[in-house]
Amino acid sequence: MTVGDYSYGNWYFGQYGKTEGAVDLVKAIKRSNDIYFYKAGEKIGIRILAEWGKKFGLGAKSGIDLEGEAEGLMPDSVWQKKVKNEDWYLGNTYHTAIGQGDILATPLQVNTWTGVVANGGRLCQPHLNSNQPENCRDLGIDSSHLEVVAKGMGQACSEGGTGWPLFNFSVENPNLKTDGINFLEAPPASGSAVARVKIPVHCKTGTSEFGHPDDKTHAWITAYAPSNKPQLAVTVLVEEGGEGSSVAGPIAREILRTWFER
Question: What's the predicted TM-score (pTM) here?
Fold first, then answer.
């Protein structure tokens, strides 16, 4: 990647001897391709990026009926000048576009925006009391745009994606009726006569750097299932845990398994 007078080598090529090839939004989500989102952030600019981050609930309390919720932070050039007395540079936009830099997000905030993708563009206030009335607002996102994001998240949890612990996710539950879309027939596990049901999962993994470059990373994954009629959105953060796929992914898998085998 070339930025002004500076050129940056391809880390993936150095690690694996090949490149990702042509990358669109679906593949960028599937493969967690930072460069795609660097350039997307550069194209739209920090003002619009921060504006939509806030629309999705970043940088504000969700209003959950629980004390102690943190606001998090959705930074922009105004914030940077006011708080840090620094100008905003393209590198800041790059970091923000991949959810790093000065962004601070709680697992609940990430779970809430995952729900926006899952439920067709509505941002809903979370609550613990099931008797609370639903409080959602439509964000006015074109359905075709949501479909592209959902497709990328579906491929992230399929062969070749980053969410490998959730590839071919299946459960043992004779009460789940296969419908060919949300619940699929799956062969029984080796040595088992119990029929299994395959459930397509949509997900996005994350490996968040913090502090000193040699420190461990935070492991993230956010997911929802099943594909067409989501019942559950799960977000897992393991602080200083390592990679999202290998550390947070198995935890999300067990939560989903418990839900669908209940």
Answer: 0.91
